[in-house]
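Re: beginner question about structure tokens

> Can someone show what the tokenized structure looks like for a real chain? I only ever see the sequence side.

Sure, here's an example I had lying around. Input first:
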Amino acid sequence: MWNLQKGVQFLPNTTIGQLQKIYEQETKAKPKMRLLAAIHRKKGKSLDDIAYHVNASRNTVHGWLRNFSLRGVQAKDSIKQTGRPVSMTLGQRKKLVKDLERGPPHNASGLWTTKEVMRLLEKKYKQKYVKQHVWRVLVSLGFSLQRPRKQHYLRPSDEELAQFKKKLGDNLGIIGEKGLLWARRMKQPMA
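And the corresponding structure tokens:
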């Protein structure tokens, strides 16, 4: 496991000068560290010495050098990981957007909860997601979090507000003007 070649046997088709030239041209930090480890190994240093110089664990350095011995100098760049494939097709995602834009069938506000979206995905599209992933799906489709505005628990009902405004009658304009005057006073500098 730990028997990597070193010195001339390590990367036999590449010289130290070539590695140093590639190292100087590299602009990204991670590939530069990997190249530095390869240069040290080409000079014949041990894994522990290299790990100390590049400030990485021995296992990490071993992995880098093993990749260099398998892939050559191209191992300085990591291979892009594709990740898990998308489980919903593009057509399903378009239908989901239309379903979400119609609004929930039993909710008059037109806003979906995460649980409702989870149930819809499970029932109609046969996709079982956790809450966090439902959020990711919604954000990727262009939806955003909407929360109802909080109201004070002692807030009067709409009917009570209407009665209050009716009682004021014509005095409503005076109260509005006083509010504006008060606002103007607040903007004046303090003496």
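Each token stands for a local structural state, so reading them left to right follows the chain. The CA atoms of residues 64 and 76 lie 8 Å apart.
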